[in-house]
Design brief:
globular
């Protein structure tokens, strides 16, 4: 797997999340929500730990330096952004707190436990050339 780009664009131009190979999901915290979703785990592809850490750092830095979305989103504490590369074979999650994005540990089934999906779409310019 290539390194993730620092120029990713989160596009809302796609209507069906299930059809996307490389998707972003923006979820908003809902106070009092506890909705556990059960499903089959998807084992991630192996990625070199150094590359994985560099990707998390690069994406987090990009999120904090510029607007990567093709729409205006008012970020609120506890909002989450989940990035799925190659149908969840590589998954990164970030949470917005105190006016900054931070990398968090998460997995696809957990994203709707305490949050509602409010935006999603296709990622563009995802990989470093």
């Amino acid at each position: 797997m290539c390194e993730v780009s620092n120029k990713i664009i989160f596009c809302t131009c796609h209507s069906d999340l299930d059809e996307l190979e490389d998707a972003w999901i923006y979820a908003r915290f809902v106070d009092g929500k506890e909705e556990y979703i059960i499903g089959m785990p998807i084992m991630p592809n192996f990625i070199n730990p150094v590359t994985h850490k560099a990707n998390r750092y690069r994406i987090c830095r990009m999120l904090n330096q510029r607007n990567c979305f093709d729409i205006d989103i008012l970020h609120i504490d506890r909002d989450q952004l989940h990035l799925s590369f190659d149908k969840y074979s590589l998954f990164y999650s970030f949470e917005y707190r105190n006016s900054k994005w931070r990398s968090i540990e998460s997995e696809p089934l957990m994203m709707e436990w305490y949050h509602d999906i409010i935006h999603y779409g296709k990622m563009k310019e995802m990989y470093k050339m």
